[in-house]
Amino acid sequence: MVAAAKQWEQQAAATQRLDRALAYLRTPEVKHTGNCWQPFSNNKDWMEISNRVYKMFCRIREDTRYDREAGRSVPAAWYVTWDLYLNSPREGYSIHLAGQDKKRYTDKAAAEKYLEGRKKAYSRLFAEISPPIPKEHENCFTVNGVLLPGYTVEGREPVKPGHAAEVLEGAISAPGKEEKPSVLGKLSAVKVQEKAAAEPKAPMKKKEDMQI
Q1: pLDDT of 101-126, one tens digit each?
Q2: 65 phi/psi in degrees, rounded to 5
Q3: Strand partners, 56
Q4: CA 53 → CA 29, 80, 133, 144, distances in Å?
Q5: Residue extents of the structural domains in the chain
Q6: Is-contact 12 21, C-beta < 8 A?
Q7: How many CB atoms lie within 10 A of CB 168?
């Protein structure tokens, strides 16, 4: 039973290492615009800019009203919407960082000025293709506790290129989790206890037998 458990543990450990390595290697490179503003691929009414860590979307929507005197629709207001997200390669980790929804203006020039101000305020995030990741969002760019290739974290030394090889060797482990007690260890402890209980106790010697 102990031998079977040992073999199972070895196979399970090998499978776990392989699964972790595959999850790391199969994480796709995130898509981005190379820090250039361009029409959003899913909706041409929006503009987008992105790199390997951040992405930003914006648009100005014109609202019209019907002018009876002019006999046509005329602009009445402009609504500015913008959003800043993490551009994580992991599905479900594109966290919303900041934004404004439908900020209303009755002057188009004022709406455009406001939006340009927002772009300028966050332009520092789009100065590099792979800017440093905020510490509080590091987990959005890691797989099994290992930072994905090409990324750095604010205030931390860059990860050595050879560190990815450790993933393939099964050297990664999920952070913050304690190792579970070994199945083999449990079985060994039980076996020792059973052996101790089964062993006959040596008979106690009488006082006269102990004399030389």
Answers
A1: 999 999 999 999 999 999 999 999 99
A2: -135, 155
A3: 49, 84
A4: 11, 24, 7, 19
A5: 1-29+134-190, 33-128
A6: no
A7: 15
Q: How far is the C-alpha of 61 from the C-alpha of 208, rounded, in Å?
A: 108
Q: Tell me how far apart the alpha carbons of residues 80 and 143 are, in angstroms, rounded to a whole number.
A: 36
Confidence (pLDDT) at 191:
40
**DSSP H or E stretch at residue 14:** helix 2-25
Q: What is the pLDDT of residue 70?
A: 83
Which of the four pLDDT bands, split at 50, 70 and 90, describes residue 174?
A: very low
Task: Name the amino acid, one letter, at 93.
Answer: Y
CB contact at 8 A, 61 and 45: yes
- The residue behind tokens 């990815």 is 164
Q: What's the DSSP call for residue 133?
A: B
d(CA 63, CA 156): 48
Q: Which of 24-38, 59-73, 74-88 has the highest mean pLDDT?
A: 74-88
User: What is the mean pLDDT of the segment spanning 55-76?
Assistant: 93
With residue 184 as reference, give the H or E element that holds it: helix 183-198
